Amino acid sequence: MSYTQDIVVLIPHYNNPNGLLRSVESVDDFENKVLILIVDDGSTKSQIDESQILACTSAKVNFLYLKANSGIENALNYGLNYIQNNLAHIKYISRLDCDDICVNNRFEKQYQYLESHQEIDFIGSYVKFVNLNRQLIFNLKLPITNAKIKKKMYFNAMFIHPAIFFRKEVLDQSGLYPVNRKAAEDYAFFFNVIKNNRVANIPEYLVECVVDPDGISGKQRKKQVLSRIQVILDNFYFGYYPIMGLIRSFILLIIPRKTLNVLKSKLK
Length: 268
Hints:
Blueprint: E1 7-13, H1 17-25, E2 34-40, H2 50-55, E3 60-65, H3 72-86, E4 92-95, E5 101-102, H4 106-116, E6 122-130, E7 136-140, H5 146-152, E8 165-167, H6 170-174, H7 185-196, E9 199-210, H8 216-219, H9 221-234, H10 240-252, H11 257-265
Parallel strand pairs: 1-2, 1-4, 2-3, 6-9
Antiparallel strand pairs: 4-8, 5-9, 6-7, 6-8
């Protein structure tokens, strides 16, 4: 089979081979356009079974291995550097995390959207959040227009990381993931992106994300919120959205995550 990949799906992995398998299985190899790039961030307990991964997908898969665990931001940057230096044919970069799955022909829809909207460089989508048993917790609808996304970014990330899809050239201006905003590297990256690019969200549920209490947002929630506050300050101007965004973030420091999930579940 000949491949003409121009979409790369960047998946970081750390000690979660079963979750990785579920994610890879969900990738729709749209017209043989998809290349999966897995970056193992120095796994120590649970190694990747390459043969099992290759058997579960028709897409081509590349594996990269870091010698030691260095954090997701460094694993992502390692993957992005590899894409820039070794995959000249790639046109679009997308993301997915272990345990999260693609639904509703995600890559076909995101690819066709950017092909038909040349003025847009970077997109996401609506997302369903589920628990570890794949039971729905809440649905998340995000702003779909460039103007609203840029304003409301100060309130919260207006993209869900595993749902993003963008032109490779975006990296020429935004750069890689900031490594000085621990647990909020995606939020900082999104701010860098919106400075020089037009963005959008597709108003369809294209990704299903797992809420893991042992994930970064659960175990490092305080660190994440503090990093997000710093990101807002990095991009601050005196206006309604930055000021309200700071107030919201400080409130999040004192509200338990379980309480927030209960409130979000009302959106089901």
